[in-house]
Design a protein that fits this description.
Blueprint lengths: L9 E6 L2 H11 L13 E5 L2 E7 L21 E5 L3 H8 L4 E2 L5 E4 L5 E8 L5 E8 L3
Parallel strand pairs: 1-3, 4-8
Antiparallel strand pairs: 2-3, 5-7, 6-7, 7-8
Length: about 140
Amino acid sequence: MAVTLGRFDNIDVFCVDVEKMADFYHGTLGLPYLFEREPGWFAVQAGDVTLYFFPGQGEHPRLYGDDSDDSPPGFESFSFAVEDLDAAIAELDGHVEWTGDGIRDWHHPSGTWYRFRSFYDPERNKIYITEPHKVG
């Protein structure tokens, strides 16, 4: 039996400091709260996807660097699409900790390509902003 999956609905993020993460995702990145703030957790809307943030236990695994070829197994990052990468970088500059050497491109033989740059949230999770150029 094959299950037909639709779009992502939500992603759960477990963190050490929920308040610091709320300040970053709502305050710095400007994502709107889905619900009125609750003590100890929050949810923000990122397009069609809801990000839920809950307190976690223990330490974070090894930091994911700019080069994903060196990343351990597991979810490494997530990306936000932007219409103009340069404008998004200018708006975030000074408010986020950038990773690596700057803007990168990735080209697929189909003609689809992406311009992107990554940064860390307050708990050192890696996030990309990407300018997609999809063909077909």
